[in-house]
Amino acid sequence: MLSHDNQRAPSLDANNDVVDVVIVTWNTQALTLRCLASLRGVLRQEAINASIWLVDNCSKDDTVSEVRSKFPEVKVIAHHCNAGFSVANNQAIRVGRSPNVLLLNSDAFLRDGALSKMLRFLHLHPDVSAVGPRLMMANGEVQHSVVPITNPIRQLGYLAAFHFPPLSRIFRRVFQHRRDRYVSGNEARAVPLLSAACLLLRREVFERVGLLPEDRFLYSEEDDLFIRMHRAGLTSFYLPEAKVLHLCGASSDGNIKTPGPNEHFHRSRLRYLYQHFQAATQFIYWSHLTFFGWSLIFVKMKNALRGNADDAAYVNAYKVLLQLNRTEYLKATQSSNLLNGH
Q: 19-149+192-251: which CATH topology?
């Protein structure tokens, strides 16, 4: 555990921007304007020099014009299509020049000097590459913003908790209890993975391990980034004293329209697993086939016994997940064969 320096740290550079704040938005005008108003107040109150980058993924609600009118200090990048979370963030990261980068969701609001505390923590601890705050939900509960990096074995726990009816409820309690431990306590500590809803990183992180993965639309960005950071020997810290309100999911709800299991989430998770754990390709394929296949059979049986038409959406969703697993598996095996010269 790192110890805090009792002496006052040197002040942050008063002449140059110390952080690039990157916000991605899509059809969340009211939320985005609220986020920017809050951020403007924070930067002024805490006397932090920052560049604010707003990347709009082709919103249809006049977000861009409203931001340009009400927040002229914000640098707006307007896409002509919804490029996805990683592509949008990366575009701003590439053009920014500050030594630190804050990834901030449009549904996240800095509280109680959170940004100053995170910046000062990086300043005091040059061996730390990333720091994340305690994310608080609107009901006052602490969000599970710190979790282990996903690997094929840990993924089994997720599958059992969410795709193993009727026993999923039992496994889910264990799954949630184990996640609670990662965000308990008030001491700053090294952690494997932090949520990108509010995440402060040194720019050199991206120079060393690369940007966010652009081959997926949404989700698993953190797993992909932090596994590369872990393998490069970079350290990340959770800083509970820095608190941020997170209206969890509000900034991404518009991207998710399919009932049942989230297709975006599972496509990204599968792609991440197959890419980073090539030695476990067969294990990944068969474990997902088993759990998704059983879930499909169970839903069909329940639907037949109860005549529950609502479950038809879940039947279709699990068919999609099974196909996703097969598609990503075939991509992984073909890529492996090309690398091996077959």
A: Spore Coat Polysaccharide Biosynthesis Protein SpsA; Chain A (3.90.550)
